[in-house]
Amino acid sequence: MRPNRLSIGVVLAALASITVGASAQSAHAPGHALGATPPSDAALIANALSAAPASIAASASVMGHDGRMLRKGTSDWVCMPDMANVPNDTPMCLDAPWRNFIDAWMNKRSPAVTQVAFGYMLQGDMPVSNADPFATAPTPANQWIQKGDPHVMVLLPDQKLLDALSTDPKSGGPFVMWTGTPYAHVMVPVSRRER
Fold first, then answer.
1. Using an 8 Å Cβ cutoff, are 93 and 73 in contact?
2. What is the DSSP string of 183-195?
3. Is pLDDT above 90 for 113?
4. Residue range 97-124: average pLDDT?
5. Helix, coil or strand: residue 25
6. pTM (two decimals)
């Protein structure tokens, strides 16, 4: 299946909308990957591909936040570069089920997770709540993570399998994000991918 502009556009819109509040909360981290000057397509592609292991990045498509196909790949993986208006370096690579999951999340529909799915953010994460999938700013109860570690995101079709995992993002191992919601998934901290 080839990635289409509509589904990728939905992913980008979802991520941008959920992080608008986060952007207002803090400025870019020093040394932000793409800086203030609009980056070249080559820089966007390199940044996007740094989100995934080299074996996945080699055949992935790259889609810009403006909906342009920056690089047509040969697999179903789609990588997206850092969002310059969001704190931290946040490129990601998603398989088709993850893109569908984000579409459901953005539209506040229950996702239909029918298979194990993976997403990679090997540079880090944007500011996000570990408890509330729609939070745009920290509260005393929403386990706000200002600068998430590099990680692999895993969707499981049977959410009962998540019950045995920690929900503490500081546990040092895999944890469940957005537990108790239809959007619960596993976050697996990993080492940052060298560029």
1. no
2. T-EEEEE-PPPP-
3. yes
4. 95
5. helix
6. 0.84
